[in-house]
Design a protein that fits this description.
Layout (H helix, E strand, L loop, with lengths): L18 E2 L2 E2 L7 H7 L13 H11 L18 H11 L13 H4 L6 H33 L3 H10 L7 H22 L9 H22 L14 H9 L8 H44 L3 H15 L4 H27 L7 H14 L6 H13 L1 H6 L16 E8 L5 E8 L2 E4 L5 E4 L2 E8 L2 H22 L7 H30 L3 H4 L5 E3 L14 H8 L5 E3 L4 E6 L21 E5 L2 H8 L3 H13 L22 E3 L4 E5 L13 H11 L9 E4 L7 H9 L3 E7 L8 H5 L8 E8 L2 H11 L4 H5 L3 H10 L4 E5 L5 H18 L3 H11 L15 H5 L7 H8 L2 E5 L3 E3 L1
Parallel strand pairs: 3-10, 10-11, 12-19, 13-14, 13-15, 15-16, 16-17
Antiparallel strand pairs: 1-2, 3-4, 4-7, 5-6, 8-9, 17-18
Helix pairs in contact: 5-7, 5-8, 7-8, 8-10, 8-11, 10-11, 11-12, 12-27, 13-14, 16-17, 17-31, 22-28, 28-29
């Protein structure tokens, strides 16, 4: 299941798809097997008469696929001698030249293009798509029915089968199943003359034609599609097994038995070859459609084509499957983030970005994407908007896995569109290790992929349970009337206990749902790799002393496992508490973060050279004065060598700007933050500036100035972060200098609830939905923040006080990166519940020693609430 990822752009096509010049190519051509699956039974007799080649051209012309002098778009070839011979063998016409896979320009550019023809083309696209869906459904039902029967039952059913038992309805369904692929490809072939000037229709035609051929390949293959995702006999093993049938017995009975097996074996071999040809043609069409869709920002079409490529490769080529799965997820995530950005910029008078986004959407809806106005709008958006730049997905996405740091383990989880399958991929980049003569060897690295069948109803129940948990946490966090802090704290255990059990049930259900993927999700232990010393280039021995040095423990390389785990999950799994899975408690996981796609993760890693270089150079070369060294008894700050430093002298903060927190004074945001600033003033926080309390409530301009001029930002207050600022102004900002943002929000008091209700009356329902923690993280990621730490559901005053204490102690005192600090908090739990009235930093011994471990049910609402989005290896330096 494992495989190393190639360094070139396009993934290696695998054993069934040879590579040519870095692209996926396969020797294919017109062959008699294609029509056998495309035409109804009544029209197949014309294909086996003399003069087969002209008949095939005539038939394909009748299908609308091939006109006079033209070649079907799903027929490809290569110019090599071997390819030419194979094409002639498959076509049955030795004297005819082969054709290139690329589509002729005259096919796609007829003389007439009107809205009516485009409407007709879309209707035919819907018909072809419905035909393929129905074909897939009928085949899946038939396959499931055969799997449910034993071998004896199947033999008995075939023996007792009689044509007299077939009803007219059964006969219609039988005929429909045999003609659905023909109908779909016929509709797609007729779209050549209707897609003039419409790139979207062209991309959809290529994608659906590739899907149709892939389904034919699956249905033709005698091994069935399970061999691509599950352990089963391979085609090589099947062919090798057929070679043992070449010995002919001497007796007549044995000879007849041999001939029967030989006939079956040759038939299976022919079907496997035919399935490979279908699969190669499907791959070629899907790659063409993918290229067209990505060039025109048709991300929904590109996502579907990428997922079809995942089905084409499967576990036969894990590297290619991992790349196409990540591409499909990036396209879907970009569409989701685009919706969030559109909601935030609904008011077109708020900014130039909002007006341009609205104009771009209107032009796309009217099909005017090929006009100069649309091109100028896109160019202007690229210049002024960081969010628009982060939404773009290009063909270069297939090289992004090479940009992942070696300390990262990237886990991709993506559901199929109908949510009946869950795809999973785990990727680690090989590490460069110094070798003899100054060379670097690529050691380690892995790529695993799998697919499991899931129940859509189970996922719906999981999402509904998580939503009820958030609602219960919000209700239990509400304070309906002003009351004393002691009354609130005394009532807290009772209110929290009502939702505690439901959180535990949700976590257990998530664990059961993802358990089949645990072998791929589990992180490996530290590995010992090859020694750096080796024999010379001639293979000669270097003496006994050097041989002893070769096998000594000091000469071996201790290769650390990738301990920074990044979860790339779809929008459904983002709602679930994935950080609480027991599989991440094993192995060497020291940091765990989320992200929306591989594209967004690499956008965060690709910080501008000017800003990142300055921060790195300043953070690593700055020498602190003796006054900034901190207390003598403080533990040394040992920063990891592979972390990205964030300038500690450029942090900004806003803490409870209305001072609406009610409760024990030592647990209020103002008191907790003031204590943290004072304790680290001599070492790291001397130059931190911001707004502490309600002495001065920041205006919108001051909010923008703080966010736009900081390397790190800390918000600690009531309600949601986005309820304090104008969302449309935030969406138009460029926060590429803000590398780290810590949001300890979602607390509530009577005063804060009143203020929030008054402000909510001025907002629409879509605008209020942006205050959801996930959408808040999406918006901050689009504007350029590299790491976002935020709560996922409402919380209590003392819980945020605990998080603030442990988090800043880990990052400031010890020097841990933000990912490790958050993971430490997630593993600790809530501490001793008997000390609720005492701050966690009251004793130095309590700072440096972790609180007692709590059970999963006790720590879930407190410890797993804080989630990290983005890069886990940012450290304050």
């Amino acid at each position: 299941m494992g495989s190393a990822v190639p360094e070139h752009g396009w993934p290696h096509p695998g054993p069934h798809l040879p590579r040519k010049q870095g692209a996926l190519r396969k020797v294919v051509g017109p062959h008699s097997g294609l029509e056998q699956h495309l035409l109804p039974p009544a029209r197949r007799d014309n294909l086996v008469t003399p003069g087969a080649a002209p008949s095939r051209r005539k038939v394909l012309s009748q299908l609308g696929v091939m006109g006079p002098g033209r070649t079907p778009p799903w027929v490809g070839c290569t110019q090599t001698r071997e390819g030419h011979s194979v094409c002639r063998r498959l076509s049955g016409s030795e004297g005819k030249p082969t054709a290139q896979v690329s589509l002729p320009e005259d096919v796609w550019q007829p003389s007439v293009s009107t809205p009516l023809t485009r409407k007709l083309a879309r209707l035919r696209l819907h018909l072809a798509e419905a035909s393929l869906d129905l074909l897939q459904l009928t085949w899946a039902e038939a396959q499931a029915r055969r799997r449910g029967q034993g071998s004896a039952d199947r033999l008995l059913a075939d023996y007792l089968h009689s044509l007299s038992d077939v009803t007219s309805v059964d006969l219609k369904w039988f005929t429909l199943r045999r003609t659905l692929a023909h109908a779909a490809l016929a509709q797609l072939g007729s779209l050549h003359s209707l897609s003039a000037g419409c790139v979207q229709i062209r991309a959809q035609v290529l994608g659906l034609a590739g899907k149709a051929l892939r389904l034919l390949a699956v249905h033709t293959d005698p091994e069935r599609p399970t061999c691509h995702w599950e352990d089963g006999p391979s085609a090589t093993a099947e062919l090798n097994g057929l070679k043992h049938l070449e010995t002919v017995p001497e007796d007549g009975a044995g000879r007849g038995h041999y001939e029967e097996h030989s006939r079956k074996g040759s038939d299976q071999q022919r079907r496997m070859v035919l399935a490979q040809q279908f699969l190669a043609q499907a791959s070629e069409l899907l790659l063409q459609g993918l290229q067209v869709a990505l060039a025109s920002r048709l991300l929904d079409v590109a996502a579907a084509a990428s997922l079809e490529m995942v089905e084409c490769t499967g576990t036969l080529d894990p590297a290619a499957t991992c790349q196409f799965l990540a591409l499909s997820q990036s396209c879907l995530a970009s569409e989701m983030m685009r919706d969030v950005l559109s909601t935030a910029t609904a008011n077109t008078s708020s900014s130039q970005l909002a007006a341009l986004l609205h104009l771009e959407h209107q032009l796309k809806q009217k099909g005017r994407t090929s006009t100069s106005l649309y091109a100028s709008v896109e160019q202007r958006l690229e210049v002024i908007s960081k969010a628009w730049q982060n939404l773009r997905v290009t063909e270069q996405h297939l090289t992004l896995l090479n940009e992942i740091p070696p300390s990262f383990r990237v886990l991709t989880l993506q559901h199929s569109p109908d949510r009946t399958h869950l795809y999973c991929a785990a990727y680690e980049r090989p590490r460069p290790v110094p070798a003899a003569k100054g060379k670097l060897l690529q050691v380690g690295g892995s790529c695993q992929v799998t697919r499991v069948a899931v129940n859509p109803d189970t996922l719906s129940c999981l999402l509904a349970g998580a939503q009820r948990c958030r609602e219960m946490a919000e209700v239990s966090n509400e304070d309906p009337a002003p009351s004393s802090g002691m009354e609130l704290e005394s009532a807290r255990p009772e209110r929290e206990g009502r939702s505690l059990q439901r959180f535990s049930d949700v976590l257990a259900s998530v664990e059961d749902y993802l358990r089949p993927l645990f072998p791929v999700l589990r992180c490996p232990e530290t590995r010992t790799q090859i020694p750096t010393a080796a024999a010379d280039s001639h293979g000669k021995s270097k003496g006994k002393d050097k041989e002893r040095k070769l096998v000594s423990p000091r000469s071996t390389v201790q290769l650390d496992a990738a301990d920074n785990v990044v979860l790339l999950v779809d929008k459904h799994l983002l709602e679930l508490p994935l950080e609480g899975l027991p599989v991440f408690e094993e192995g060497t996981v020291s940091a765990l973060s989320r992200d929306f796609s591989l594209q967004m993760l690499c956008n965060r890693l690709r910080k501008e050279d000017t800003a990142e270089g300055a921060v790195r150079k300043e953070g690593r070369s700055r020498k602190r004065s003796p006054a900034k060294k901190g207390p003598k008894d403080a533990p040394p700050r040992l920063l990891p060598h592979d972390c990205i430093l964030v300038d500690t002298d450029n942090f900004k903060f806003v803490v409870d700007p209305y001072e609406e927190a009610r409760g024990i004074e030592k647990l209020t945001p103002v008191f907790v933050t003031r204590d943290i600033l004072e304790r680290h003033r001599d070492s790291l926080t001397a130059l931190w500036v911001g707004h502490l309390g309600n002495k001065h409530v920041p205006s919108q301009a001051e909010w923008e100035q703080l966010l736009g001029s900081c390397s790190g930002f800390f918000f600690y207050g009531m309600e949601s972060f986005l309820s304090h600022i104008l969302v449309e102004r935030l969406a138009a900002m460029n926060l590429r200098e803000c590398q780290m943002m810590v949001l300890l929000d979602l607390m509530r008091s009577y005063e804060s609830m009143q203020r929030h209700m008054e402000n909510s009356e001025k907002k629409s329902v879509p605008q209020l939905s942006l205050e959801d923690p996930i959408k808040t993280a999406v918006l901050l990621s689009l504007v350029g923040v590299r790491s976002i730490l935020a709560n996922q559901w409402p919380t209590f005053l003392q819980d945020n006080a605990l998080r603030a204490s442990i988090l800043w102690e880990s990052m400031l005192t010890v020097g841990r990166p933000i990912g490790r600090a958050v993971r430490l908090l997630q593993r600790m739990g809530a501490g001793d519940p008997r000390n609720h009235g005492e701050p966690p930093w009251a004793s130095r011994d309590k700072q440096l020693s972790p609180p007692p471990q709590l059970s999963d049910s006790e720590r879930l609402p407190v410890a797993l609430n804080l989630v990290l989005y983005g890069l886990p290896h940012l450290a304050i330096g």
